[in-house]
Amino acid sequence: MKFTTVSVSYSRKFNLGDYESLEIGCSLWAQVEDGEDADGITQFLYQQAKTSVKEAAIPVIKASTHQMSKAKMYKHSATNQSDELDNF
User: Fold this and answer.
1) Residue 12 near residue 23, CB atoms below 8 Å
2) Does residue 28 belong to any structural domain of this protein?
3) Number of domains the chain is built from
4) Rounded CA gap, 36 and 32, in Å?
5) Which of 29, 80, 81, 84 is geometrically suited to a Cys-Cys bond with 71, CB 3.0 to 4.6 A?
């Protein structure tokens, strides 16, 4: 039985205004055995990492006046009226 390690990293950098920024990232690893779906596991890890970064970023973004004004501006200019925090 041969094992392979699959790793995924996902990060986002947010401009908080006043020359401040915040980078949030997540790295996940999994050992995959021969015969397992490595591509499916990679996609699962990617979605998990993205969700973790989003959950960590939302409170910071909501507290940032700069980010909230950007979200409002994009919301008004977009034809799709979905919440900007859901689309990052």
Assistant:
1) yes
2) yes
3) 1
4) 6
5) 84
Q: Which residues contact 59 (CB under 8 A, 6 or more apart)?
A: none
What would the mean pLDDT of 51-59 be, rounded to a whole number? 94
pLDDT, mean of residues 66-80: 73
pLDDT value at residue 35: 85
Domain that holds residue 30: 3-81
**pLDDT higher than 70, residue 34:** yes
Yes or no: say if 42 and 57 are a contact pair by the CB < 8 Å rule: no
Residue 56 lies in a domain: yes
Mean pLDDT calculated for residue range 53-69: 86
Residue 24 has, within 13 A of its CA and on its CB side, a CA count of 17
